[in-house]
Amino acid sequence: MTHNDSSLAALLKEHFGFEQFRPLQKEIIRSVLEGKETFALLPTGGGKSLCYQLPALTDEGLTLVISPLIALMKDQVDGLNAAGIPATFLNSSLSRPEAAERMRGLWGGAYKLLYVAPERLMMPDFLSNLDQWNVNRFAVDEAHCISEWGHDFRPEYRKLGALRERFPKAQFLALTATATSRVRDDIIKGLHFSEPQTFVGSFNRPNLSYSVRPRQDGDGLALALTRRHRGESGIVYCFSRAATENLARFLKDNGVSSKPYHAGLSDEERRQTQDDFIKDNVDVICATVAFGMGIDKPNVRFVMHYHLPRNIEGYYQETGRAGRDGLPSECVLLFSASDEIKYRRLWKDKASEQERKVAIDQLLAMSHFAESTDCRRAGLLNYFDEHFDEIPCGGCDNCLSPRAKMDGTVIAQKLMSCVFRVREHSGFSVGLRHLIEVLTGANTEKIRQWGHQALSTYGIGKEYSRDAWMDFGRELMRKGLLSQDADQYNTIQMTERGNQFLKEKETIALTEPPVKSGAAIARTLAAGDEYDHALFETIRGLRKQLADEQGVPAYTIFSDVALRQMAAYYPVDLQSFSKISGVGRVKLDSYGPSFVETIKTFLDVNPRQNYNHPQTDSKPVRERDASRPGETVFKTVRMFNDGLDLHSIAQTREIGMQTVEQHLAKAVIADLELRDHAWFTQEEADTMEKAFTELGDDRLAPIRESLNESVTYLQLQIYRAMRRKTSK
Ligand code: ADP
Ligand code: ZN
After folding, report:
1. pTM
2. Do residues 36 and 149 both lie within one domain?
3. Cβ distance 534 to 701 under 8 Å?
4. 129 C-alpha vs ligand 1 centroid, how far in Å?
């Protein structure tokens, strides 16, 4: 069967609800449909799964997906089933009867996709079953697991090559997000590929923004970041178990829903935490690097590194867990030079000399990245040998607020002669901190003890703060004029290059100390949220409710992209709802009516905002007469007046909690008879009144924000309704 562009596009919309292919998806799918050996390298979030899911729908046989992570199989299959695609998985998490049921389905040809782990696949019985199940395609996901050079080597993957001979007619497809060429070669060899069609996407993640902040008051920075993303998912990576525990507690004490995750917890605790994160029961996970491998959550809105990652590969991979759904997401790294020293100490006598050297080189590359004043995106991509020159990139701190350069000649001379004088006077070298204390004329015990207040360089650097001097010192090290001796208590030495600089009276440019506050950068980076936040909250609640009823993660119902579109275009009939990203045929039927109903009811009570999204093609929605409640509102009101609580009403009527709330708000506006109910305390009413007086009552989102989100949208809606009524 041949497929042209428009028939592929139609399949994409019908089954997955998407309007457009992501880069290279179509090319990869074509190659797969033509039966060629195919090798796809796309970054995380590039949409690799679709490259075998869509072809599976077009032909007769079964697509076998080999995947290393049991936890991910279930999520993927849940997602496919929600879209009406017949898929299943077999693994050790299933009970006997469950497994038997699925086997029956497989014998009966009921599925288009089957997910298995390689251990099961290679069992002899299983292989002979496959002969009968008409497997026409093997998709090897996370194919880098085949390589010992990869970050996630799985010995069982080694055996997959043998499948080629066992199933000569089947087609093979390998997918990975690993960028290094060594791993790529291993995959091609390991799967016995001869001349695969290879597709390499750019590893740039345009929707991720990168910034680095000095780690002063790290807890405060973490709290500010999580507050800015209230109600959204994020991960904070920390160096140690204790740090994850402390930070999670601190955030929790400050009202942020968060939990720690590290290897010291029991399997059960870890599983539970992961599940809570996936199901949106917990927003922020403070984790060691152990967290994230088994997680495919598309709507992680920020990743913070509280401590320095040990290398750039790790940093890229961990930040890569943000924003798989393509929405703007933030990656914030907190930098302190002390982290570098901590690692050096940790590695001091542990690894072999060679290993230690490699590790330290990688660490230095990482801290250079952190301290660099050049485009972060370019820095990352260059590290993976990808050229990037769209600078300024528009999404990193250095491009958004470039740090100015200044003549640093005198600064360098002062610092370097201080190194020289100390050594001359005392006969030993000292660390950067002590040098800076001498330069800034501090009166410390060591200075007195060593007589350093008598040096000619004592107090000659008072025009800059100590933090600024630290930055200068480190920049001079990066530039090779000074060096730090890891084995000698990190003391500072003059290099060959440094001596030459002084002797030849050279000049040098250094980066000006920072002045701009971090919050300003963060605000620029957080752009791109043009939608009705009140409606978003409402339909997000509906999504969570539906997801919990079905025991699946919320994102398998609709992505955040879909929700934001709904909250910007207000689709109030199924026709316009079908235009939303992620709404295919099956989801339109199963979820369309409840979302449309919720949005309609929302609009009865709230004014419609206007957002100029260029890509919208949904028609403007007719403003409804907000003063006339319909029969559905009356039904809710009757039940409410009969004494039912909101939850029971939602359950009995099979509508969302949010819809019930909206109905009641509408009843208040329309002045219907309602039984007494304490919608808010006097104190809450007072604060709302103050905010409405100050900010006007057109839009609720800014009001709620000004009240630090201490009241709900429902409370605001009802209060506004009552207020408008009395002022009429
Ligand atoms: P990867 O495995 O490459 O990290 P996924 O296959 O998990 O990426 O896809 C990431 C997200 O992008 C998923 O939420 C998926 O539904 C979505 N997605 C994939 N293809 C498209 C597309 N063509 N248009 C919109 N969203 C897409
Ligand atoms: Zn940049």
Report:
1. 0.70
2. yes
3. yes
4. 31
**Pocket probe mutation, ligand 1, options 13, 73, 325, max atoms within 8 Å of Cβ:** 325
What is the pLDDT at residue 72? 83
Question: Closest residue (by CA) to atom 19 of ligand 1?
Answer: 47
Task: Cite the beta strand spans of 448-606 per DSSP E.
Answer: 482-485, 491-494, 509-511
Share of the chain above pLDDT 70, in %: 93
- Lining ligand 1 with CB less than 6 A are 18, 20-22, 25, 42, 44-50, 296, 298, 324-325, 559, 581
CB-CB contact of 84 with 584 (8 Å): yes
- Find the distance separating the first CA and the last CA of the chain, reported in whole Å: 67
Q: Which of 158, 175, 200 is the last residue of a domain?
A: 200
SS3 of the chain: helix, strand, coil, percent, to 5:
50, 10, 40
Is residue 616 a part of any domain in this protein? no
Nearest to 607 by CA among 525, 690, 540, 669: 669
Helix ranges (DSSP H) in 440-517? 445-450, 466-478, 496-503
- Whether 628 is in a domain gets the answer no
Torsion of CA 37, 177, 79, 170, to 10 degrees: 10
320 with 424, same domain: the answer is no
Are 32 and 172 in the same domain?
yes
Q: What is the count of structural domains for the chain? A: 5
Q: DSSP string covering 569-587, please?
A: H---SHHHHTTSTT--HHH
Q: Which domain holds residue 82?
A: 5-200
Rounded to 5 degrees, what are φ and ψ at 116? -140, 155
Using CA atoms of 255, 257, 260, 265 in order, give the dihedral in degrees to the nearest 10: 120
Give the model confidence (pLDDT) of 588-628 as tens digits. 999 999 999 999 988 888 877 776 544 333 333 333 444 56
At residue 486 the predicted structure's pLDDT band, cuts being 50, 70 and 90, is low
Residue 610 lies in a domain: no
The alpha carbon of 522 and the centre of ligand 2 are apart by a number of angstroms equal to 14
Nearest to 418 by CA among 494, 530, 317: 494
Alpha carbon distance 432, 483 (integer Å): 10
**Probe target for ligand 1 pocket from 5, 19, 21, 22, with the most ligand atoms within 8 Å of CB:** 22
Please write the tens of the pLDDT for every residue from 436-452: 999 998 888 889 999 99
Q: Is residue 614 part of a domain?
A: no
Q: Using CA of residue 605, residue 610, residue 613, residue 616, what is the dihedral sign?
A: positive
Please compute the mean of the pLDDT values over residues 314-330 and round it to a whole number: 92
**Which amino acid residue places its CA nearest to atom 24 of ligand 1?**
18
Do 237 and 348 have their domain in common?
A: yes
Q: Which ligand is located closest to the Cα atom of residue 67?
A: 1
Closest C-alpha residue for ligand 1 atom 2: 48
Closest of 108, 100, 92, 7 to residue 54, by C-alpha: 7
